[in-house]
């Protein structure tokens, strides 16, 4: 049952690699020319910020996918990290990197919602 999910995860990982901005490293953030005129400086800051944002999102996603693949190899994939119950195939098909069952996920979202209220 997990073969199909593994393929999905590997595809997603490949996708992350494709979308990661090339030739871009963290230090690019420091390479903004401080002598550039104001408008250029501002647009550089926005550009670098966007790329950093995209990159950190992709990095996070990649870690999630790699974790899921690791769980597939070592066991524990499809088990809720919170209560240990089966996450359920339908949920895994919808979200192959899910680590919580529907009940625990709902609990967590409720807690988060309360924090933000
Ligand atoms: Zn659970």
Describe the structure.
The protein has helices at 2-19, 38-74, 89-94, 102-116. The longest helix has 37 residues, at 38-74. It is 65% helix and 0% strand. It starts with a helix and ends with a helix. The mean pLDDT is 87. It folds into two domains: 1-77; 80-117, no CATH class. The chain is built from four helices and no strands. The relative contact order is 0.13. Residues 80, 82-83, 85, 100-101, 103-104 line the site of zinc ion.
Query: What is the approximate shape?
Result: elongated
Overall mean confidence score, pLDDT:
87
Rg result:
19 Å
- What share of the residues lie within helices? 55-70%
Distinct small molecules bound, one entry per kind? zinc ion
Enumerate the spans where pLDDT stays under 50 for 5 or more consecutive residues. Answer: none
Domain module count: 2
Q: Secondary-structure element sequence?
A: HHHH
Structural class based on helices, strands and sheet pairing: mainly alpha
Brief overview:
This protein is an all-alpha fold. The chain has helices spanning about 1-20, 40-75, 90-95, 100-115. Helix 1 packs antiparallel against helix 2.
């Amino acid at each position: 049952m997990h073969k199909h999910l593994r393929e999905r995860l590997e595809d997603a990982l490949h996708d992350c690699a494709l979308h990661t901005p090339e030739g871009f490293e963290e230090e690019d953030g420091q390479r903004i020319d401080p002598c550039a005129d104001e408008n250029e400086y501002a647009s550089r800051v926005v550009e670098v910020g966007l790329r950093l944002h995209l990159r950190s999102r992709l990095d996070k996603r990649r870690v999630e996918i790699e974790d899921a693949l690791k769980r597939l190899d070592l066991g524990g994939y499809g088990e809720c990290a919170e209560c240990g119950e089966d996450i359920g195939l339908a949920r895994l098909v919808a979200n192959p990197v899910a680590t919580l069952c529907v009940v625990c996920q709902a609990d967590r979202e409720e807690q988060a919602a309360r924090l933000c209220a």
